[in-house]
Each structure stands twice: as structure tokens, then as C-alpha cells.
Amino acid sequence: MPDRTESYDYDYPLGKIGGKTVYLAVDYSDRVTDEASAVTDDYAVWLFFWSPLENAEDAEQVHIVRIDDRKHGGPHIDRFYSEEGGKDTSLPVDFDVEDAIERLEDRWEHYARQYRDNFGFE
Questions:
Q1: By three-state DSSP, how is residue 47 classified?
Q2: Residues 77-100: tens digit of each pLDDT
Q3: What pLDDT does 2 receive?
Q4: Which in 5, 12, 108, 110 has the greatest CB count within 10 A?
Q5: Burial of 103: CB neighbours in 10 Å, binned 0-12, 13-18, 19+
């Protein structure tokens, strides 16, 4: 089984593209703003697949796209699927974790196909 020690709160499969299962993972911050409330604007949501195979001893998560609001001054999209890479910083400042989940659930096939077309699923 792959080493699943990468820290995040949960993941779930969205579907298959090119024989690979694409997962959505969500990580909330462990920081708190006061004694009663967790920080909700410090999050990361991403799509990934396992390479070479999910159950292989040497399996690793390969990130397709990530939306987060960490250490960069606001929400943005890390475009791992694109040959140009980089960040898309055009998201509104109030784009939260629920928005990120919805965006990736709605567009997962687009991002996964772009990744596959640009880099293949090794």
C-alpha cells in the first residue's frame, strides 16, 4: 500500500480519466483564531491521482491542480495541469474552501484531461 502520510483532512474519488482514479483532497488549517473557532480562510483543496498505481509500494500522489489560501496573500489556483504552470490569482478575496471544493468537483474532468494531455498519466 502507498504511504498515505501526507497530511490532510479527507479525500474522496471523483471518477476515472485514462484509467486513473482522480481524487479530491481537502486540508483545513490547524491554526485557531481564538479558543472557539478554527481558521476557515487557511485551506488547500486539490485533485490528485496515484502513480504508478494506487496499491503499489512506491505510489505517490501526483497533484493535478490545487486551490489554496496559504502564505500567498489570498486564494489562488496552482496550475500543475498546465505546461506553463504558475498561479492564477484572479479568484475573489472571499473565495473560501466551499467555493474551492465546488470548483474542483465541477471541473475535475477538465483539469484531469488537461494534465493527461500535457504530461500523460505515468
A1: strand
A2: 999 999 998 899 999 988 999 999
A3: 45
A4: 108
A5: middle
